[in-house]
Amino acid sequence: MAKQSWSDVIKSAKKTALINDGKRKIHYLFADGKEMAEEYDVKTDELIVRKWRHKNTLGVQSSWQVEVGEPFHLTAPLDSDVIKENCSNPVFMRKDTKNSFQWRIRNLPYPRDVFSVSVEPPERCIIIKTSNKKYYKKFSIPDLDRSQLPLQSSALSFTHANNTLIISYKKPKDVLSLETELLKELKNLKGAAEGDADCKAQ
């Protein structure tokens, strides 16, 4: 039996919508039991958050893993010792634009020419290096992995300003088409208002 495409998987997922605080919140339940939650800005349709969770072999629910948006640990209390200790450490997060996947790494106070950002197609990842050997990061693009699309060096670019490295990867046409199609469906879901327990599911 052929493996189901990501396009078919996400279209067939059970979806529940909630409109709250200027955000369109969507919960997805997939056939394999995995869950995905997304938040979109109602006015701009910008994806603000995407996170995942699943049940382990014992049926225990895992904690949410953030794919897009602020990492959970950044929302810890300001008086947390952990936050104080690590406030100057690099902070890696993804914040997409309409046409690009985008990652921001804060607290990198080095000149732009120190950074090297490259695509490694065989490993299906992007690698960040610094010539002063102060920072190294390897990460994948889950969206491309789910759709089984190749990584292209020509789609990658980066800039550096205010101690923040910003890496952009131009979204392939297939991804843009799927996002546009999915957004139309999400907008047609009858989103319940805050406090309304009867979210419309599809």
The overall strand count is 13
* Strand line-up of the largest beta sheet: 5-4-3-2-1-13
Radius of gyration based on Cα positions: 19 Å
- Distance from N terminus to C terminus (CA atoms, Å) equals 26 Å
By DSSP (H or I, 4+ residues per run), the number of helices equals 4
CATH topology of the largest domain: Immunoglobulin-like
Low-pLDDT parts are 195-202
Question: Helical percent range?
Answer: 10-25%
Q: Helix and strand succession?
A: HEEEEEHEEEEEHEEHE
What is the count of distinct domains? 2
Largest sheet entry = 6 strands, mixed
Overall pLDDT confidence: 87
Gross CATH architecture of the largest domain? Sandwich
Computed structural class: alpha+beta
Beta fraction of the residues?
A: 35-45%
* Global morphology: globular
In CATH's first tier, which class of the largest domain applies? Answer: Mainly Beta
Describe the model.
The protein is α+β, with helices and mostly antiparallel strands and 202 residues long. It has two domains: 8-71; 88-171, Immunoglobulin-like, CATH 2.60.40. It contains four helices and 13 strands. The chain has helices at residues 6-12, 81-86, 142-147, 173-188, and strands at residues 14-20, 23-29, 35-41, 47-53, 65-68, 91-94, 100-106, 115-120, 125-130, 136-139, 156-161, 164-170, 192-193. The strands form three sheets. Strands 5-4-3-2-1-13 form a six-stranded mixed beta sheet, with helices on one face. Strand 3 (35-41) and strand 4 form a beta hairpin. It starts with 5 loop residues before the first helix and ends in a 9-residue tail after the last strand. Residues 195-202 have low confidence and may be disordered.
